[in-house]
C-alpha cells in the first residue's frame, strides 16, 4: 500500500492523495488524506484552495491523516483579514512604496488569527470555507458550503453560515474511546486488518 502515489484509484484523475501534491513547507498533510476536484486539476490544490497564504505571515495549514476533502473547499489565511484596528480597512501598509511607509510594517495591514489545523478522519464537504485560526477536531464533519469561523469539536457535525454545531456523531463515551484509540495512527497493516471493525463500530464496543 503506497500513500505516496498521486492517485489512489486507477483511472480516477479527480482524486489525489494530497500529501503527494503539496509543495509548500508551510502545508503539512497526513498520509491517505484525499482531495477530490471535478472542476479543476486536484494537483493544483495549493493554488486554487489555499488562499492568501503568503510566506511573509509564516502561518501554517496542518491536515491530519485519512481526511476527505471535497471539491471547492477553501482555506482562507490571515492576509485576507484586513485589520479592524485601524479607522480604515484599506491596507495602506501593504502598499508601502506608494505611501512611503516602512516595508517592515507590511504585516500590520491584516489581523493575524493564527494557523488552520484540521484533525484526523475529518470530512470537509463541497465548497466549504475554513477561516484562519480555526481548529477542526478529529472525526468532525463540515457540511457543504459551510463557512467555519470558530473551532469545531471532535466528532461534531457542523453546517451553515457561519457554521454551527448540528449534533455530535456519537455519544460522549464513544467519542472519548475513539480519541483514545487514535486508529489513524496505527500501522497500516493493523488498519487493513481492522477495516471491518472500524466500519462496523466494533472498535469501541
Number of helices: 4
What is the helical fraction, as a range of percent? 10-25%
**Going across the major beta sheet, what is the strand order?**
1-3-6-9-12-14-15
Shape: globular
The rounded Rg comes to 19 Å
N- and C-termini, Cα separation: 28 Å
Low-confidence stretches: none
Counting DSSP E segments of at least 2 residues, the number of strands comes to: 15
Q: Spell the H/E element sequence.
A: EEEHEEEEHEEEEEEEEHH
Which secondary-structure class do the elements indicate? Answer: alpha/beta
Can I get a quick summary?
The two termini are 28 Å apart.
Can you describe what's shown?
The protein has helices spanning 45-49, 96-99, 172-181, 188-200, and strands at 15-17, 27-29, 34-36, 50-51, 61-63, 68-69, 74-76, 116-118, 123-124, 129-131, 135-136, 141-142, 147-148, 156-159, 164-168. It is an alpha/beta fold. The strands form three sheets. The protein has a seven-stranded mixed sheet, with no helix packed on it. A four-stranded parallel sheet has the order 2-5-8-11, with no helix packed on it. A hairpin with a 4-residue loop joins strand 14 and strand 15. The two termini are 28 Å apart. The mean pLDDT is 94.
Amino acid at each position: 500500500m503506497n500513500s505516496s502515489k498521486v492517485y489512489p484509484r486507477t483511472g480516477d484523475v479527480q482524486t489525489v492523495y494530497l500529501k503527494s501534491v503539496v509543495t509548500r513547507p508551510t502545508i503539512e498533510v497526513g498520509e491517505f488524506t484525499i482531495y477530490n476536484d471535478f472542476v479543476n486539476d486536484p494537483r493544483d490544490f495549493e493554488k486554487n484552495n489555499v488562499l492568501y497564504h503568503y510566506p511573509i505571515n509564516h502561518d501554517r495549514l496542518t491536515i491530519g491523516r485519512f481526511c476527505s476533502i471535497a471539491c471547492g473547499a477553501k482555506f482562507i489565511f490571515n492576509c485576507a483579514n484586513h485589520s479592524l484596528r485601524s479607522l480604515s480597512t484599506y491596507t495602506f501598509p501593504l502598499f508601502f512604496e506608494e505611501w512611503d511607509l516602512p516595508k517592515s510594517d507590511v504585516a500590520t495591514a491584516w489581523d493575524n488569527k493564527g494557523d488552520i489545523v484540521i484533525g484526523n478522519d475529518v470530512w470537509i464537504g463541497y465548497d466549504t470555507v475554513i477561516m484562519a485560526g480555526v481548529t477542526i477536531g478529529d472525526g468532525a464533519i463540515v457540511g457543504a458550503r459551510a463557512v467555519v469561523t470558530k473551532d469545531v469539536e471532535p466528532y461534531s457535525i457542523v453546517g451553515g453560515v457561519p457554521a454551527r454545531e448540528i449534533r455530535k456523531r456519537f455519544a460522549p463515551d464513544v467519542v472519548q474511546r475513539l480519541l483514545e484509540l487514535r486508529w489513524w495512527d496505527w500501522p497500516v497493516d493493523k488498519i487493513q486488518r481492522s477495516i471491518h471493525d472500524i466500519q462496523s463500530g466494533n472498535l469501541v464496543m
